[in-house]
Structure formats: C-alpha cells, structure tokens
Specification:
The complex is a heterodimer of chains A (645) and B (125). Chain A has 645 residues and is α/β, with parallel strands linked by helices. Helices cover 36% and strands 15% of the residues of chain A. Chain A has four domains: 51 residues, no CATH class; 181 residues, 3-Layer(aba) Sandwich (Rossmann fold), CATH 3.40.50; 169 residues, 3-Layer(aba) Sandwich (Rossmann fold); 194 residues, Rossmann fold (3-Layer(aba) Sandwich), CATH 3.40.50.970. Chain A is globular and about 105 Å long. Chain B has a two-stranded antiparallel sheet. The chains are: A alpha/beta (645), B mainly alpha (125).
C-alpha cells in the first residue's frame, strides 16, 4: 500500500490559525533576479526567465504556510490520554499520519505508547488478548480502507469474543482535498460499513468536538457489557489542520457504566429453584470479566455445593476446585436445574449433535430439567453473522451481567438454605469432590500413554511445560484447537491464569493475541505462556517481531502436528462416507514437504528459537533454555513436533 | 472456545467398560490378528489422527477414545469401525477388510497403554 501523500492541494484550507513562516511573508515583493542571463545567440529562440517567472517558480505561493503550532491530532491525543489508554497498536499509514505524529511528539509516546505491528490483523488481535488480561481496551490505528480490510478478521474474533478494542481508521472525507492516486484508493464515503456487522458502534467525526464526544462514547460503549470492538474514522484534514481555538474544545468526561444486575425478583426465583434442586449444575462461558468474577462464582457454587462446568471462555473457576466437573459433562444429563451464565452457545452446550450424513441433534438434558439463563449477551445482537447460535428454550431468562449479579444470587441462596438443605448440599459436595478427584487421577493415568513416544504426545508436552513454569507467577493465554491437557493437569486458581479463546474461531488469533496478553502481563511481572497450532502460527508469524522489538516476554509453544489437523480429520470423514479410502487426505490439509522450521522463523524475527523437538527427552532442556530467554525479557518459541491430538 | 463438546460418547465408553469382563475372549481375538500388519494399517488408514499413534486417544468433534489395551471384544470393535456411534467415520469393507480390522485390533491390544503416574514425577505437580 502507498505510504506517500501529496498534500499540496489541501493547503488552501489553512487560513485561520497557528500558521507561521512563508505565509507571513507572502506580501513581500519577489526579488528581482540579479544574475539574469544576458541576451545571447539563442535569445531569439528562448529568452531566460524574467523576475516574475523566477519568483513564481521559487517562492511559496500566498496562503501556503509551512509551519503550524497546533493540530487536530494534538487534540485527539489529549482525548486519548483522558481515557488512560496505554497502547496504540499500529501498522503505520499516511491516512492517520497526523495522529501518529501527535502521539509521538505531542503525547511523548506514552499513554498511548505506539506498538509497531507488521499487519493490521496482528494489531487488533493484540488488543483482544490485551483487554482480556488488563480489563480495559487499547487503541489500534490503520488505513481506513486497505488497513481496515486487513483488520476485519481480528475485529470479528473480538466481536464474537465480546472484547473491547478501540479501532481507528484514517480517511480523507473531502474529495477536493485528496491527492491523486492512493488517497482516492484509500478513501471511502462510509468506511465503517465493512465492519458494522461486527462492531458495537462506529462513527466518522466531522469536527474535533465531534471527535472528542464520539471517542468517549465509543470507549464507553465498547466497555459496557456485552463488550465489543468499536470503530472511529479519522478524517485526515481533521488530524492535520491547525486548531482555530483550542480553548473552545471540550473533552467529555468519561464515566463507566455500572453493569446491570439481574432483577431482584428474578434472582430470588432462580435461588429458589437452585436451592430446591437435587442436582443443580452451573455452566458458564464468558462470565468473569474482572478479577472478582471467579470468586463470586466460587461463592455461589460453594453455597450450593453444586457442580460447575466451565466452558473456559474466561478464567471462571479454579481447575482443581472439588466442584469443578468440566471434564464430566455427562453430569448435564443428571441435572434437574441448570444455571447457564454468560453462555456463548447454550444450545450447543446442552445438546447432542451428530455430524453424520443426516445431521441430527437432541437434548443432553433430562426431560423436565429447568434451565435458567443469566447474562447480557443477547442484549446486543446483529442479524447477518450467526454467532448468536441456535435457539434454546429456557424457563427463566434473566437479563443481567453475570458477574455483577452473582453476589445477590448467592445471598438469596444462603437466605433460602435451611439446615436440612445444608446437610444435603454437604453430602452432594462430598460426592462431587470424590468424582473430581477421580477425574484428576484419571487424567494423570491417561497422560502416561505414549509418554516416551515420538512424535511427542500433547499430554507430555503440556506436562513438561507446567513442570518448568509452575513456580512462576504464570499466565496461560493461548491454546491450540482441542488442546485441553492444561486444564486437565494444571492448577489454575488466579484470575489471570487463563483468558479464553479466539471467539470467532478465526485462524491467526493465537500468536498475536497471546503477545497482546503478554504485553498486559509484562508490567505485572507475570510469566506469560501460550500454546498454538502450527497452522495458526503461519497466519501471523510477524507478531513475533513485534514481541522482540518491544521486549515483550512470552514463552510460545508451537503444537506442531504439521497439518490443519481438524480439517484433515473432516476430509477423512468425507472420504469415508464414500468408501473411497483416506490415503489422500494430506492433499490440501498438511503443512509439510518442506516442513517449516518454526525455531528458525522465530530467530529470523528476533526471538529465541528452540526445535524442532521430536524426542521427548529433548523437550525439558529446550524449555529450560527458552524460559531463560523469556526471563531475559524477550519472546521464545519452542517448536514441538507432536502427535496430532 | 469450548474445550470439549457434548456427544453421545457414553455408549462408546459404556461398551468399553462392559468389554472388561470378556478378557479371555479378548485374548483369543487379539491372538487372531497380526499386530505388525495392524500397525501398518492403523497408520495408513489414519486411525492415529484421532486416536493417537500410541492409542492414547484424542479428539475429533468430541473425545476420541483411548484404544491402547482396549477392553472391547473384537466383535464390538469391528462393529464400531463398520457402523460407528457418534461422529467417527465408517470404514466399509472396500477400505478395511475384516482381517485388517482384526490386525488393527491386535495392534491396539499390543500397545502398552497407561502406567502408574507415580512413576512420572512431573505428573504429580
């Protein structure tokens, strides 16, 4: 894309304020050329230029200033500073050059500090991972047309994941101000249109006051549950032109919305159902949105001594809590009351689905089971993309933020719990604890199968990593498709030890989002670790350069099965339906011949690289070396050649 | 992202449990197959892509069961291959002969399977 820009056609706009230099001298009579060439033999054919001609070619025209003392970009930075935005992830682009310069010089490159990215998809995904650890959005800037088109996949992931990211896209609204060429290719009437179906709100401010109000509004909307990305178009003229009267501009006050709590009567009804149930089950997905969320859920579960199934959209529930039954999903079929909190796909979680020639589905719940939902997800939906999932009948549907509503629900449960029920709860809790412990022991036994095999089993890969980071203040911020050994084997108990997945299942999330999360963890001194598939890695390997450039420490484990393995299995299923054999399923699904050397790729980006590790005995020493590199302040990649799943 | 997906895996796991009582018959079943050839077929026909090269299990749309030291009798094993429950692809006799299945069965029965995690200190963190 072009980064060049010709601004000469726009300068006649500059006639109001803050202009110094050549414009001030425009009334001066152009000097007469003292050394005008004398007439010579060729003078009859081509006379030398006269004083007026020379002046016209060498002097700046009237009203064409070359300096200014203020700009809209400076005001924009002032607005961003009031929102306490720590970082601006960017891929540099001329359509927001005014803001870029203002961030660097007027803003001192702090709050926000620029994080240089080599692709817009990386820049937004970093924001997604960052927000889920830090609890607030960062800002991202890109070309409003070509850059925003690159950014769309990441914005869709953030939308599906209900994560706030503040996205800016440069544009030149006025046609007569655009330079020939790229500025026309990079301009649009309504550039936000392309992302409107998967953003919460967007605007294209036409004045600086409008900008201030829209950015504060956008930030507020993005951070209000259900959260999501927002988009603001940045007019080039607005960024670059001087400000006529800075004092006349007001930066609006930001005050966050208090997330809505569920109706008290409805929560009391839910408490009654839960207390009277024989086998209540809590299932949750994107419930915990602050460090307090996990504690609130633990309090409710312990008050009821009931099973909790954590769909792991966030760090909702400790992995080794005795009531955690996430790997005993058959328990859903025994539940008489199910409380579903901030679920992304309620139907999928409570149904059996069969991906066969004739696709069928049916309830996983027992007949008559009462289903209570609590959440805000359905308060903001759009029509085109079907991320809202299939309809599911419920018995009590409470509109309220899950985390904000849990303390009141727990209090109502405690009030309704008689001594008889308390005894029954305790007995139930003992059984669940025993089942949980059996599940943990079963996981350990299962993990031993193929322990010394090559390619390395995913269980051993995860166990080896945990063995070396367990005493760190660790934060796991990424995993590969269907890689769940960490949640089976590791002791998750702190709010930042997990931050969920991509949201939209758009490949390319894992590496940049993990680095974004690592950026957030850095100032807290946490040790960031992530796993990711080899397929995902290759979408955005340039994210590693950003991590190296900005000294973002992260241990990144490539779960390298040399394939887009889920698709590999799907293709085998298609072939099996036809009885055609499955020996050609590597066509179009594998990443080999040649094998990619991810450690070398990492080193090329300035990161530490280990691997490819094929012998399990080599894994521990490689991890030790990589962890030392992370502790030295940079990214490290360990390429582990694994069995597929 | 959902870690696991609810499936009708219960039938498969139940069959595996019931099969444990038929150990004598299983020994005969396993002896009937060629484990070395079974390994070749297991890899060629992509069984490992869901169940792992060591028969450690894995995941497709839902959990793919552990096959190492399977407790299923050969007949139930063959039935699952021919007309599987859940989302496992069906393998017709045009792709896998009964002998191939018997050989695969012998192979997965020959796999060492699990051992005590107490022997592996890092699994006890």
């Amino acid at each position: 894309m072009s980064k060049g820009r010709n601004g000469s056609s726009r300068r006649n706009f500059l006639k109001n304020a803050g202009l110094v230099g050549a414009a001030a001298a425009s009334a001066v009579t152009p000097p007469v050329a003292a050394d005008a060439a004398p007439a010579g033999p060729l003078s009859k054919k081509a006379l030398p230029p006269g004083p007026r001609q020379i002046a016209a070619e060498t002097m700046a025209p009237a009203n064409d200033p070359v300096n200014q003392t203020s700009s809209g970009g400076d005001f924009m930075v002032d607005v961003l500073k009031t929102l306490d935005i720590d970082y601006l992830t960017i891929n540099c682009a001329s359509s927001y050059r005014g803001l870029h310069e203002a961030v660097v010089n007027h803003g001192g490159n702090t709050k926000p500090e620029i994080i240089t990215c080599v692709h817009e998809d990386i820049a937004v995904h970093m924001g997604q991972g960052y927000a889920k650890i830090e609890g607030k959005p960062l800002a991202m800037a890109c070309h409003g047309v070509v850059g925003l088109q690159h950014a769309t996949m990441a914005m869709y992931n953030a939308w599906c994941d209900r994560v706030p990211v503040l996205v800016f896209g440069g544009n030149i609204m006025e046609a007569d101000k655009r330079a020939p060429g790229a500025e026309w290719l990079h301009a649009g009437v309504d550039i936000g249109q392309i992302v409107r179906e998967f953003t919460k709100w967007d605007d294209q401010p036409a004045s600086l006051q409008h900008f201030g109000e829209s950015v504060v509004r956008a930030y507020k909307i993005a951070c209000t549950p259900p959260m999501g990305p927002v988009f603001i178009a940045l007019d080039g003229e607005l960024q670059e032109n001087p400000i006529a009267n800075r004092k006349a501009l007001r930066i609006p006050k930001f005050e966050p919305v208090i997330p809505p709590q569920g109706d008290a009567g409805a929560l009391a009804e839910a408490a009654k159902l839960l207390v009277n149930a024989q086998n209540p089950v809590i299932i949750c997905d994107r419930m915990a949105r602050t460090p307090a969320g996990m504690g609130h859920l633990v309090a409710l579960a312990e008050a009821l001594q009931c099973a909790v199934i954590d769909n792991a959209g966030r760090m909702n529930f400790p992995s080794r809590h005795p009531l955690n039954q996430s790997f005993r999903r058959a328990i859903i079929g025994q539940a008489d009351v199910i409380l579903a909190i901030e679920m992304n796909d309620l139907w999928g979680a409570l149904s059996h689905f069969h991906d066969r020639i004739v696709r069928t589905s049916g309830p996983a719940t027992k007949p008559g089971a009462k289903i209570i939902t609590l959440g805000v997800r359905d308060l903001y939906l759009k029509a085109n993309y079907q991320d809202f999932g299939r309809w599911h009948d419920v018995d009590l549907d409470i509109a309220g933020d899950g985390e904000a509503s849990l303390p009141a629900l727990t209090e109502a449960v405690l009030k309704l719990t008689s001594s008889d029920r308390k005894s029954a709860f305790a007995e139930r809790g003992r059984k669940l604890a025993a089942a949980h412990q059996a599940m943990v022991e079963r996981s350990k036994v299962d993990a031993t199968i193929g322990w010394d095999s090559s390619p390395i089993t995913t269980a051993r890969m995860c166990a080896e990593v945990y063995n070396q980071i367990k005493d760190e203040d660790w934060s796991l911020v990424g995993t590969a498709i269907r890689l769940s050994w960490m949640h089976r084997l590791w002791d998750f108990k702190k709010p930042y030890q997990w931050n969920g997945g991509s949201g939209g299942a758009g490949v390319g999330y894992n590496l940049p989002a993990s680095i974004g999360a690592a950026l957030a963890n850095k100032k807290h001194g946490r040790f960031t670790v992530a796993f990711g598939g080899d397929g995902d890695f290759m979408f955005n390997p340039g994210a590693l350069w950003t991590a190296a450039h900005h000294n973002i420490p992260i241990l990144y484990i490539v779960h390298n099965n040399r394939a887009y393995h889920q698709e590999y299995m799907y293709l085998a299923a298609m072939a099996a339906r036809h009885g055609r054999g499955v020996d050609k399923m590597d066509i179009g699904t594998t990443i080999k011949d040649p094998n990619i050397d991810y450690a070398t790729v990492a080193r090329g980006m300035g990161a530490h690289g280990e691997g490819p590790i094929t012998d399990p005995k080599d894994l521990a020493p490689a991890l030790t070396r990589a962890i030392a590199a992370v502790k030295a302040g940079g990214p490290a990649v360990v390429d582990v050649v694994t069995d597929p799943r | 992202m959902r870690i696991l997906r609810v499936t009708a895996a219960a039938a498969w796991f139940a069959a595996a449990t019931l099969g444990a009582v038929c150990s004598a018959a299983q020994a005969e079943d396993a002896a009937a197959g060629d484990a070395a050839h079974g390994k070749v077929v297991f890899l060629k026909e992509q069984c490992f892509t869901c169940h792992g090269r060591s028969g450690q299990g894995g995941a497709y749309n839902g959990p793919a069961p552990i096959l190492a030291q399977t407790a299923l009798p050969l007949e139930a094993f063959r039935a699952q291959v021919r007309n599987p429950v859940n989302d496992m692809p069906a393998y017709s006799d045009a792709v896998l002969s009964d002998k191939d299945i018997a050989d695969i069965y012998a192979f997965v029965k020959s796999l060492p399977g699990s051992r005590s995690p107490k022997d592996i200190p890092i699994l006890n963190n």
